[in-house]
Write a structure and sequence with these properties.
The complex is a heterodimer.
Chain A (H helix, E strand, L loop, with lengths): L5 E4 L6 H10 L6 E5 L5 H15 L8 H7 E5 L19 E4 L10 H8 L1 H10 L7 E7 L8 E3 L13 H14 L5 E6 L1 E4 L11 H10 L5 E3 L5 E2 L1 E3 H13 L7 E4 L6 E2 H15 L1 H4 L7 E3 L1 H14 L2 H11 L9 E3 L2 H4 L11 H13 L16
Parallel strand pairs in A: 1-2, 1-4, 2-3, 4-5, 5-7, 6-15, 7-12, 8-11, 9-14
Antiparallel strand pairs in A: 10-13
Helix pairs in contact in A: 1-2, 1-8, 4-6, 7-12, 7-14, 9-14
Chain B lengths: L30 E4 L12 E4 L13 E9 L4 E3 H6 L7 H6 L4 E3 L6 H17 L8 E6 L15 H4 L7 H9 L5 E6 L5 H15 L5 E8 L8 E2 L2 E2 L3 E9 L5 E9 L10 H22 L9 E3 L5 H11 L20 H12 L7 E8 L3 E8 L1
Parallel strand pairs in B: 6-7, 6-8, 13-14
Antiparallel strand pairs in B: 1-2, 3-11, 4-5, 8-11, 9-10, 12-15, 14-15
Classes of the chains: A alpha/beta, B alpha+beta.
Chain lengths: 384, 380
C-alpha cells in the first residue's frame, strides 16, 4: 500500500462522507486511508462511500470518482483488531489520525460498547504511537460524556466521572481518559447530537432522537421529561464535518477539548415540540385535526411515575418505546448548555449554527417516514 | 307575544316563572339555554350562552343537583387468582396486584343488567323520597350494545324473533318502577363516559324544559358471559348506578362539565397503544379546560372522585393537572373498574360519610372508549 498521510476510522459512519468531503475540499494532501471493515462487498461499499463523498464535495470541486479513488484509499481493517489492520501500512508518513469509529448504541451492554469504544480507541492509540511524524490525533467523542452534569459544560477534560445515563456515555468517557493520558498530540472533539443533513434532512443512521420522533408522531409518547426552556443541542452532519475538518487541518496547537455543538443557540424543548407538532400537521390529517394530543412536558418525578407504571405493566410495545426514548429523553432533565468558544476560535468566521427552524422540519419528516399500523407485541421485543 | 320571532328579551320565557335573582350557588356563566315556544308548530330553538351577563328580569337559571346517588355491585366476586385460574386475565396476578386491583365483581349470567339497573334505581328512588310519578324523565345509559335489551325467552317464530331487538331495558324500567309520567331517552356509545353523558342529557332536560323537575339517570353494564375480565391493564367488574337529578336541589349541584371527543380513537382494537398513550395528555387537557371554563384553579378542587382504574395513574394525572395529591379520594372499598359506575360508587360513599363540607368542589372524571374524556364539577 502506498504511504498514507492521514488515517481515518469511522469514514463510513453517519458523518464520514461529509467529513471526507470537507477534508478534500480543504486540500488535505493524499492519500487518505479510510479504515473499512472487510466484508463480502467491501469494494462496492467503498464505491458507495466514494459516491457519497463526491455528492458532498463543494460545487467548485473538480474531483471525479476516479480522482477521488486516488485520494481516498480503503484500508481493510477493524478497530477491534490490536493493530487495526493486517494490511502492511507505512506509518512513517502519517501526520493526521481522525478516530471517529464508535458503537453508538446507547443501550447496548457496557462490555460490548467498551470492546469498540474503549479497546478500539486503545488500539488506535497504539498505532498512533508508531507514527513518528504524527502531528494531530483527533478523537471524535460526544458531548454526552457530560452525563448528568447540568449548567454550562466547559470545553475541558473531565477526569472525574459524572453520573451517566447510559452505558454509551460511560464508554466514551472512559475512552477519553485513555486519549488524554496518551502523551500524543491529541484533541478531543465532542459532538452533540447529529440529526442529519441540513440540506435534505436525510439521516444516514437513525439515532435515539429519530426513534423518539417516530414514536411521537405515532402518538405513543404521552410525556417528555424536562423544562420548556431546556436546551436540546442538535447539529447537522455538515456542521460537524466543517468543524472537524477545520480542527484536523488547523496549523499550530489546538485546545485539548472542543465542543462541536449548537451551544447557547440550541433549540429549546418547547420549541422542538412545537416544531414537531407543526411538521406532523403537515404530514398527517389526524394531527392537523387535533385528534392526537402532543406530549406534555413534565418534571422528573412525574416521568419516573409514568416509567414505573409502564414497567409494572410489562407492556412490550410501551417498554420498547420507553427504552428507545430513554436513551434521549432522560438527558432533558439534566439541563445543560455546551460551551463552544474554543471550537469557534478555530475559524476567523465560524460557520453559522444550524438553522433549526428550517432543518428540523426536514429531519422530522425524514424520521417519521410513511406511517404504518402500530403492531402490538406480546411475546418479544423489537427494535423500532 | 309574537311566537314567530324570538322574544326581545331572550331570557324571558313566558312559560316559566320569572325569578329576578338566580338561586344561591348557581353559576351564571356558560349556560346554554334553549327556549321553546308554547306552540310546537312554531317552535324556535336557539342557543343562548349566558356568560358574564346580568339579567334585568326573567331568570331561567336552574340549579340542578343530585338528589340521590346509588350504585350496586353484584354479590359475587372472584379474586385475581381465581380469575387467572379461569383464564380471564391477560396480565399476571402480580402485575395487576401492582396496580392495586384485588377482585372483580361478576353478575350471574341471566338477567344481570336489568337486575343491577333496577336495584340501583329503586335505591335511588327510596333515597330521594320521591313518588315515582314525580320522575319526569328516565335516561338510560349503557356502554355495551348487548346490555340494552331485556333478556327474553327464545321464540321459535323467526318473524317474532326480530321483535326481541326492541325489548328495551329502559321501557321495562319505566314499567317496573311505575314511572308513569316519565319520558324515556337513552345514551350510549361512550364507553365508561356514558353515564356522564346520561347525566348531561338529564340536566339539559331540566334546564331546557320547565315541566321537567326530576330526572332519573340509570346506567348498568355487564361484560358478556365468559369475557376476559381485563381491559388495558384494568380489572373489570359489573355494576349498576342511578342518579336522580332535581331542579333547585342544593346538594351536589352541577357546576361545570367538559368533554373532549376524539373519533380518531374509535378503533379500540387497532389503536390500543395510541389510546393508552393519549390518556394522560388528553385527560389533563380536558380537566384544565373544565377548570378554565369555570374560572377555577386546580387548588380550588377540594376532592377528586376517581374511577377504579389503577391508582398510580390517578397520582400521575393529579400531578399533570396540578391538583394537590391529598385531594384524591381514597375509597373504603375497592371494586376494580366497573365501566360506568365507578365515580358514583365512590360519590355515594362520600355522601354517606357526611365528612365533606357543603360547598366543597368535587371533580369527577373518566375516560370512555369512543373516545371521550369527560369531567364534571359538583358543588357538594
Amino acid at each position: 500500500m502506498q504511504p498514507l498521510t492521514t488515517l481515518i476510522t469511522g469514514g463510513t459512519g453517519s458523518i464520514g462522507p461529509d467529513l471526507l468531503a470537507r477534508l478534500i475540499d480543504s486540500g488535505i494532501p493524499g492519500p487518505v486511508g479510510v479504515l473499512i471493515r472487510p466484508q463480502s462487498d467491501s469494494q462496492s461499499a467503498f464505491t458507495r462511500l466514494l459516491n457519497q463523498v463526491l455528492a458532498a464535495l463543494s460545487i467548485n470541486s473538480k474531483h471525479t470518482l476516479q480522482t477521488l479513488a486516488k485520494t481516498l484509499i480503503p484500508v481493510p481493517g477493524d478497530i477491534t483488531h490490536p493493530s487495526l489492520t493486517t494490511t502492511p501500512l507505512c506509518l512513517s508518513g502519517i501526520r493526521l489520525i481522525i478516530h471517529a469509529a464508535a458503537d453508538t448504541r446507547f443501550r447496548a451492554p457496557l462490555q460490548d460498547l467498551q470492546a469498540i469504544n474503549v479497546q478500539g480507541t486503545r488500539h488506535v492509540l497504539s498505532l498512533a504511537r508508531q507514527c513518528p511524524r504524527l502531528q494531530r490525533l483527533v478523537y471524535v467523542s460526544t458531548c454526552c460524556v457530560a452525563g448528568t452534569s447540568t449548567g454550562l459544560i466547559a470545553e475541558d477534560l473531565t477526569p472525574t466521572p459524572p453520573g451517566f445515563l447510559n452505558p454509551y456515555e460511560q464508554s466514551k468517557w472512559q475512552a477519553e481518559q485513555y486519549v488524554s493520558s496518551s502523551a500524543l498530540p491529541f484533541t478531543i472533539a465532542r459532538l452533540s447530537t447529529v440529526v442529519g443533513s441540513q440540506l435534505t434532512g436525510a439521516i444516514s443512521r437513525p439515532g435515539a432522537l429519530h426513534h423518539a420522533l417516530k414514536w411521537m408522531y405515532r402518538g405513543l409518547v404521552p410525556m417528555v421529561p424536562g423544562q420548556p426552556d431546556t436546551h436540546v443541542d442538535l447539529i447537522s452532519s455538515q456542521y460537524a464535518a466543517a468543524f472537524l475538518s477545520q480542527l484536523a487541518l488547523a496549523p499550530g496547537p489546538v485546545a485539548p477539548v472542543i465542543h462541536i455543538a449548537a451551544g447557547p443557540s440550541a433549540v429549546t424543548l418547547s420549541q422542538l415540540l412545537a416544531l414537531c407538532v407543526q411538521t406532523f400537521k403537515q404530514i398527517s390529517p389526524s394531527w392537523l385535526q387535533g385528534q392526537i394530543a402532543p406530549p406534555m412536558t413534565v418534571d422528573s418525578q412525574t416521568y419516573a411515575l409514568f416509567q414505573d407504571s409502564i414497567n409494572q405493566s410489562g407492556d412490550v410495545l410501551f417498554k420498547s418505546v420507553l427504552d428507545s426514548s430513554s436513551a434521549f429523553l432522560p438527558g432533558l432533565i439534566h439541563p445543560k448548555t455546551y460551551q463552544t468558544t474554543r471550537a469557534r476560535q478555530l475559524f476567523d468566521h465560524p460557520p453559522a449554527s444550524m438553522d433549526w427552524r428550517r432543518v428540523l422540519p426536514l429531519v422530522i419528516a425524514q424520521a417519521v417516514g410513511p406511517a404504518g399500523p402500530v403492531v402490538r407485541l406480546h411475546s418479544r421485543e423489537t427494535h423500532p | 307575544m309574537d311566537f314567530l320571532a324570538p322574544p326581545k328579551n331572550p331570557f324571558q320565557n313566558p312559560l316559566s316563572p320569572i325569578n329576578s335573582d338566580p338561586p344561591s350557588g348557581t353559576s351564571v356563566e356558560n349556560f346554554h339555554v334553549y327556549h321553546f315556544c308554547l306552540d310546537r308548530n312554531d317552535r324556535h330553538e336557539y342557543p343562548d350562552r349566558m356568560s358574564n351577563s346580568t339579567h334585568p328580569s326573567g331568570n331561567p337559571h336552574h340549579t340542578v343537583g343530585m338528589r340521590a346517588v346509588c350504585a350496586v355491585l353484584p354479590d359475587s366476586s372472584l379474586t385475581l387468582q381465581e380469575l387467572a385460574d379461569a383464564s380471564l386475565l391477560r396480565s399476571t396476578v402480580k402485575v395487576l396486584e401492582g396496580f392495586a386491583f384485588e377482585r372483580a365483581f361478576i353478575a350471574p349470567a341471566q338477567q344481570a343488567v336489568e337486575s343491577l339497573a333496577l336495584a340501583a334505581a329503586k335505591r335511588a328512588l327510596a333515597e330521594s323520597g320521591l313518588d315515582p310519578k314525580d320522575i319526569h324523565a328516565l335516561v338510560w345509559a349503557g356502554a355495551i350494545p348487548g346490555n340494552h335489551l331485556r333478556h327474553a325467552p327464545l321464540t321459535p317464530d323467526r318473524h317474532d324473533a326480530v321483535l326481541t331487538n326492541f325489548q328495551y331495558i329502559a321501557g321495562w324500567l319505566l314499567d317496573e318502577l311505575g314511572l308513569i309520567n316519565a319520558d324515556v331517552l337513552a345514551v350510549t356509545q361512550q364507553g365508561c363516559s356514558t353515564m356522564f353523558s346520561g347525566l348531561r342529557a338529564g340536566r339539559a332536560l331540566i334546564v331546557a324544559e320547565p315541566h321537567i323537575t326530576n330526572v332519573l339517570v340509570v346506567g348498568a353494564d355487564v361484560l358478556p358471559h365468559g369475557s376476559t375480565r381485563e381491559i388495558m391493564y384494568n380489572v373489570i367488574s359489573d355494576a349498576g348506578c342511578a342518579v336522580i337529578l332535581s331542579r333547585d336541589w342544593k346538594t351536589d349541584v352541577w357546576a361545570g362539565y367538559h368533554q373532549t371527543s376524539r373519533g380518531y380513537y374509535w378503533d379500540t382494537l387497532g389503536r390500543q397503544p395510541e389510546i393508552i398513550a393519549a390518556y394522560f395528555p388528553t385527560s389533563a387537557a380536558t380537566i384544565r379546560e373544565l377548570l378554565q371554563k369555570q374560572h377555577l384553579t386546580p387548588s380550588d378542587i377540594d376532592l377528586v372522585i376517581p374511577t377504579g382504574v389503577s391508582r398510580a395513574s390517578w397520582e400521575i394525572l393529579m400531578r399533570l393537572v396540578g391538583i394537590p395529591a391529598d385531594r384524591l379520594y381514597v375509597p373504603k372499598h375497592t371494586f376494580g373498574h366497573t365501566i360506568l359506575a365507578d365515580n358514583f360508587l365512590m360519590l355515594e360513599e362520600v355522601r354517606r360519610s357526611g365528612r365533606v363540607k357543603p360547598g366543597a368542589k368535587l371533580l369527577l372524571f373518566t375516560y370512555g372508549f369512543g373516545s371521550a374524556w369527560t369531567g364534571l364539577i359538583l358543588e357538594h
